[in-house]
TrEMBL record:
InterPro entries: AAA+_ATPase, ABC_transporter-like_ATP-bd, DrrA1/2-like_C, P-loop_NTPase. Belongs to the ABC transporter superfamily. This is ABC-2 type transport system ATP-binding protein. Residues 4-231 form the ABC transporter domain. It comes from Isoptericola halotolerans. Transmembrane segments: none annotated. Keywords: ATP-binding, Nucleotide-binding, Transport. SMART domains: AAA.
């Protein structure tokens, strides 16, 4: 298992710090999601990790040592600006990219055909990329990053524009790489997907890391809410001191409680008024955590 990490990574454009002392790890064998709003600095960070953009200060490490040019040649990278040539056959581009990673031509062709076969595109291997649907182009693009047994994967928005079945297929492919101990870092705006897939996630806000950990760790650090279900209208909870009613819908209320005493007071009041069908903690969703840390 080889960890890919960044330490105090900083990039300025003029007097603007697009990435400001960013540190995090993408451990080997795990999918690490990289999220943040538009302009938060994800692409800039990934470009520095790959060495396609110079680093103002800080360091990228692979396996505990400063990353080398030779290391980076073994990484699979899917850039934000998609790199396939529209007027070249898909198979040729996959073979070319595998050969760049030192795979002999014959083996590269075999691997490329296997991939195209898995995508259901074997018959279209010789078609120019531009003749494929956008989703299929995107899948070939991800495949290009996966050629030649990369030692790390850095993927900028690999799932954008894919339908759910295509996402699942691509995730299966990525999991084959994490199973070999490879670190996989990918950016995404699809929080539900990130929540479902990732063993770790890093949240960036205006160039800084504002949350970093496993989904469970982030959930523990997030605000716990409670769901209260009564047998009659729950609107009165809005008047209870220490209770912040996030949402009230008939007999059901989603509330944030200031402390344990508030919980007891709420419960006692509810019982005085009738039956309490449920009072239970609600683990925050990733979307809620994201809103809290990026607010
Ligand atoms: N070459 C550049 N010159 C000047 N500013 C840049 C350059 N590249 C990026 N920036 C700025 O750096 C900041 C971070 O941009 P970046 O593309 O890394 O964000 P992002 O998180 O990937 O956003 P998105 O989700 O929209 O892709 C933005 O303010 C952007 O305008």
């Amino acid at each position: 298992m080889t960890t890919l990490e960044v330490h105090d990574l900083t990039r300025t454009f003029g007097d603007r710090r697009a990435v400001d002392a960013v540190s995090f790890q993408a451990p080997g064998g795990m999918l690490t999601g990289f999220v943040g709003s538009n302009g938060a600095g994800k692409t800039t960070t990934m470009r520095m990790m790959m060495g396609v953009l110079s680093i103002t200060s800080g360091e990228v490490r692979f396996g505990g040592a400063p990353v080398t040019r030779a290391d980076r040649r073994t990484f699979g990278y899917m850039p934000e600006e998609r790199g396939l040539y529209p007027k070249q056959p898909a198979i040729d581009q996959l073979v070319y990219l595998a050969r760049l990673r030192g795979i002999p031509a014959a083996a590269a062709r075999t691997e490329a055909m296997e991939h195209l076969d898995r995508l259901g595109l074997a018959e279209r291997a010789k078609d120019h990329v531009e003749k494929l649907s956008l989703g299929n182009q995107q899948r070939v693009q991800i495949t290009a990053a996966l050629m030649g047994r990369p030692r790390a994967l850095i993927l900028d928005e690999p799932f954008s524009g894919l339908d759910p079945a295509a996402v699942d297929g691509m995730v299966d492919l990525l999991r084959e790489h994490t199973a070999r101990g490879v670190p996989v870092l990918f950016s995404s705006h699809q929080l539900d997907l990130v929540e479902r897939l990732c063993e770790r996630l890093v949240i960036l806000r205006t160039g800084e890391v504002v949350a970093d950990g496993t989904p469970a760790e982030l959930q523990e650090a997030g605000t716990v809410r409670h769901r209260l279900v009564l047998d009659s209208d729950a609107g009165w909870v809005r008047g209870v001191p220490g209770v912040h009613a996030v949402d009230v819908d008939g007999p059901t209320a989603l509330v944030e409680l200031a402390d344990d005493a508030t919980t007891q007071r709420l419960l006692a009041t509810a019982l005085e008024r009738g039956q309490v069908r449920e009072l239970s903690p609600v683990r925050p969703s990733l979307a809620q955590i994201y809103r809290e840390v990026t607010a």
